[in-house]
Amino acid sequence: xxxxxxQKQFAEYIESFxxxxxxxxxxxxxxxxxxxxxxxxxxxxxxxxxxxxFALPNALxxxxxxxxxxxxxPVIVTFYRGGWCPYCxxxxxxxxxxxxxxxxxxxxxxxxxxxxxxxxxxxxxxxxLNFHVLSDVGNKVAQEFDLVYRLPDYxxxxxxxxxxxxxEHNADDSWTLPVSATYIIAQDGTIAYEYAKADYKDRxxxxxxxxxxxxxxxx
Length: 219
What we know:
Layout: H1 5-20, H2 23-38, E1 55-57, E2 63-65, H3 66-70, E3 75-79, H4 86-97, H5 99-104, E4 108-113, H6 117-126, E5 132-135, H7 140-144, E6 148-150, H8 153-162, H9 166-170, E7 176-178, E8 180-185, E9 191-197, H10 206-218
Parallel strand pairs: 3-4, 4-5
Antiparallel strand pairs: 1-2, 3-8, 6-7, 8-9
Protein name: thioredoxin-dependent peroxiredoxin
Keywords: Antioxidant, Disulfide bond, Oxidoreductase, Peroxidase, Redox-active center
Domain Thioredoxin: 45-218
């Protein structure tokens, strides 16, 4: 099967990462993913569930309400870890690449992370994103979507060694993150599509999400 565009980008980055990072550190990162996959936490809401309503600040600190977005059409909501995550940045840029098609299909798109608005602005500007990049400080909305987990202590130490100060990006010291997840929320507030995985390298291709959006808007 031919790899999708995003999968190819991920595969290339992973190969580069393996060459740069000692195996014992790679093993620790894999251990953390395996432990999260085997746990009962952060599984995410499912198709048919009612999506929690939310009102969150965007990168300019203006409040964006899910209710207002749904008045225009179905909403793609993608939860990402932060602008420090290379996989997240690749994913967000891929969504930017099909943004016009999302709008043509009648949908809206928002991306949510626990970063502060200032950090979200950095993410938005760095990747030249023209959709709402929202700040869920404290992971309150992500918690309602059942996506939040805490990094294990050994991974926190490793992230600090890498210079990945998640606590500074998020302006809290909880070291909690949402699992990478993408939802399509129908106009009645029901989740029509979901893809949530403990492994942050396992993400749905945005073009596949677009196809699912078209199915929702066709009903």
